[in-house]
Design goal:
single chain, 277 residues, alpha/beta, Rossmann fold, three-stranded mixed sheet, 48% helix, globular
């Protein structure tokens, strides 16, 4: 697919931690653009017999959403499932591992796998899902019921995107070495579950912190640890959340109508502190 945009040097093998494109830039240049593929994509993704799986699939949904917006096309309505999330919980990872790490871990052969080639990514993701289904002894349909946080939908994703597009207040917190370290710590606490915790007050509750709440990153880290101490989790995506944490009542009132279609509990930082006492 022709991206109809200049290539970032990062994807041309330039700079630290760069990657190489699966094909030459010239090949992309002469490929059709997104709008030419759109009818086929919608037909495939919304077919009643299609079940959509992907590894770190939220990234793919994000690209689809941005191109639909760019080309002024309606975002198709469908449900999707994240193989990475199934694998993460099955193997009890606190972080989200790469596809290559997952393939190595479950001994899925990938000698011919070319990273960043979409057809190979899809095939390897399918083989990983197949291996987990065989090991666990469940069908793909049964797996998504066993691991419900793997599931999402494009309407929920679009609500998440709307939240991300809201203008942000600058709360005046410094962006210094301490805040950067706290940000790294907060990311490490996402999905972390302490097996030794005996307090089960928040078991089954998954907390998503708003961007504004994470500006006060020191408080966010403190609260995330307190949530873990009560068997709760902090999560990365709206589709995983049972509770949404706002910075204050002003933000809570601003977003409550946006989140109204979802069964989420809205809590300001102050209310969450009171809950955790």
């Amino acid at each position: 697919m022709n991206p109809d945009a200049p290539f970032d040097p990062h994807v041309l093998g330039i700079g630290e931690n760069s990657i190489d494109l699966a094909y030459t830039p010239v090949r992309f240049q002469y490929a059709p653009k997104f709008d030419a593929f759109y009818p086929a994509l919608v037909s495939l993704l919304t077919d009643k017999d299609t079940v959509v799986f992907g590894y770190a699939v939220e990234n793919d949904i994000g690209f689809l959403y941005s191109d639909c917006h760019r080309y002024q096309k309606p975002m198709p309505n469908f449900t999707f499932y994240d193989i990475q999330e199934i694998y993460r919980i099955y193997r009890e990872w606190d972080r989200s591992p790469s596809l290559e790490d997952a393939l190595k871990d479950l001994n899925v052969p990938f000698d011919s796998y070319a990273e960043h080639r979409s057809s190979d990514d899809a095939e390897m993701s399918m083989l990983l899902l197949k291996e987990m289904a065989q090991e666990i002894g469940q069908s793909a349909e049964e797996l998504v019921k066993t691991y419900p946080t793997s599931g999402g939908s494009t309407p929920t994703f679009m609500i998440q995107a709307k939240l991300m597009e809201l203008p942000q207040r600058d709360l005046g917190f410094p962006y210094d070495a301490d805040s950067r370290e706290n940000s790294r710590t907060f990311n490490q606490l996402i999905h972390y579950v302490d097996p030794e915790v005996t307090n089960k007050d928040l078991e089954g509750h998954r907390f998503l912190f708003s961007r504004l709440a994470k500006q006060d990153i020191g408080t966010a880290v403190e609260l995330a640890n307190a949530i873990i101490d009560r068997s709760g989790e902090t999560v990365r995506y709206l589709k995983e959340a049972t509770d949404y944490v706002t910075y204050d009542e002003e933000e809570k009132n601003e977003i409550k109508d946006i989140l109204a279609p979802l069964s989420l509990r809205l809590l300001s930082i102050k209310e969450l502190r009171n809950l955790l006492k």
